[in-house]
Give the backbone structure.
Amino acid sequence: MVCGGVGRQLLQHIVSCRSLHVQQGVYLRVVGVCDSKSLVAAPDVITRELNDQAFSEVC
């Protein structure tokens, strides 16, 4: 799977703003990332999420 430019920038922005999110009381859970041909998702999207390391591996 290869992230496109917009998807890559969005994931990088989410990761780079984690400290700001915490200060504002915001918690973003990313449970899946997909493109037109593939999907990477957390094993259980109700209780788990993809971690920041997974973003690096996906893109």
Remarks:
- The helical segments are 5-16, 18-24, 52-58.
- Strands lie at 32-34, 39-41.
- Residues 5-58 form one domain.
